Amino acid sequence: MSKSISKHMLGLAVAQMGPIHLADTRESVVARMVALLREAKGRGAEMVVFPELALTTFFPRYWVEQLADADHYYEKSMPNQAVQPLFDEARRLSVGFYLGYAELTPQGHRYNASVLVDRSGHVTGKYRKIHLPGHADHKMNAPFQHLEKYYFEVGNLGFGVFEAMETRFGMCICNDRRWPETYRVMALQGAEVVLLGYNTPLVNIHWNEPAHLRTSTHLLVLRANAYENGVWVAAAAKCGAEDGHEMIGSSVIVAPSGEIVARTLTEEDEVICAMADLSLGEFFREHVFNFARHRRPEHYGLIVERTGAGEPLPVRWRDE
Ligand code: CDT
Questions:
Q1: What's the 6 CA to ligand 1 centre distance in angstroms?
Q2: Which of 4, 11, 64, 198 could form a disulfide with 44 if both were Cys (CB 3.0 to 4.6 A apart)?
Q3: Model confidence pLDDT, tens digit, residues 175-193
Q4: Which protein residue's CA is at the shortest distance from atom 7 of ligand 1?
Q5: C-alpha torsion sign, points 231, 126, 9, 85
Q6: Torsion angle of alpha carbons 266, 277, 45, 85, nearest 10°?
Q7: What's the half-sphere exposure (Cβ side, CA atoms, 13 Å) at 309?
Q8: Calpha distance 37→198 (Å, rounded)
Q9: Atom 1 in ligand 1: which residue has the minimum CA distance?
Q10: Which residue owns the Cα nearest ligand 1 atom 6?
Q11: How many whole angstroms from 233 Cα to the centroid of ligand 1?
Q12: Of all protein residues, whose CA lies closest to atom 12 belonging to ligand 1?
């Protein structure tokens, strides 16, 4: 491969994971991830994306009286003994990865977090989920809970962009993917590839959402935001039925054209790969979405001034 090609082509893989049940050990999960990493490397991957909360079942579906009763779901350091085999194998194979996990800091803060690990096995970027969905109270009549607002604090690191393998990576987590601000803030820092993991229950406990919409809205936001920001998007599901609780699959790699270039077929452990041409994003960023030429932030003030929708602003004009 010539120098100029290697600078603009990135072997990108998504390592979708099937269910992780309550009874599964960290060691068995990490062994599955090591196998996925090896397969991805064998298919040309340099960067591999694992899901949100990839080391445990999606525990926000369960209520506990005391947060401390859930401490076993959280990682107190990253890496740690249980995940070290994944870091070691990544270094041995010279591949980087994105890993989502529950973080418990030494000061007792709890975040839904992800790390970007470079091909030498070093943590080179960190993200803490900002758009936390669900609720903080115990919903007695719901078929299951979605307690992210109980288990996690809102992330305090912003939407960072990190450089690894001559590529600028942004990270976000699950519900963040539905918010256009997520991608735009990263694109304004020159992000070329956005990595994310997700756990999306098939049933929405808040309203009677038709099941097919869970997948179609997921694909809609990934495709639209890839295109509108001229970025590649690689999205990894944890999916299938975890102790009977169904979650959607459809992990994808999306090009800056908004087109899906790879998509999983199963709801099990499965690797998808693409050779991502990073120069493709440049066309969109230089032409239709040339931010410096075409954006008009003087007209976007409400985006940061208001959180919820309010009254229409007065618009005054004179026909002259
Ligand atoms: N994990 C996560 O963020 N899931 C949400 C479910 C929203 S419904 C309460 C998602 O956006 O997929």
A1: 36
A2: 11
A3: 999 999 999 999 999 999 9
A4: 133
A5: negative
A6: -100
A7: 1
A8: 18
A9: 199
A10: 200
A11: 18
A12: 200
Predicted pLDDT of residue 7: 54
Is the pLDDT confidence value at 1 over 60?
no
Catalogue all structural domains in the chain, each as residue range(s) with its CATH number. 9-305 (3.60.110.10)
Cβ(176)–Cβ(131) below 8 Å: yes
* Per-residue pLDDT at 235: 99
pLDDT digits (tens, 9 = 90+) for 191-237: 999 999 999 999 999 899 999 999 999 999 999 999 999 999 999 99
* pLDDT tens readout for residues 98-136: 999 999 999 999 999 999 999 999 999 999 999 999 999
Question: What is the set of active-site residues?
Answer: 52, 129, 174
Number of other CB atoms surrounding residue 161 within 10 Å: 20
Tens digit of each residue's pLDDT (9 = 90 or more) over 130-165: 999 999 999 999 999 999 999 999 999 999 999 999
Which CA distances in Å does 156 have to 110, 153, 168, 197, 282?
11, 9, 21, 19, 30
Distance CA 164, CA 187 (A): 16
pTM of the complete model beyond 0.85: yes
| Residue 266, number of CB atoms within 10 A of its CB | 12
How far, in Å, from the CA of 93 to the mean position of ligand 1? Answer: 33
Identify the three-state secondary structure at position 127.
Answer: strand
Pocket test for ligand 1, best of 199, 215, 246, 252 (most atoms within 8 A of CB): 199
Ligand 1 centroid vs 211 CA: distance in angstroms? 14
Residues with CB under 6 A from ligand 1: 52, 133-134, 146, 174-175, 178, 198-200, 204, 206
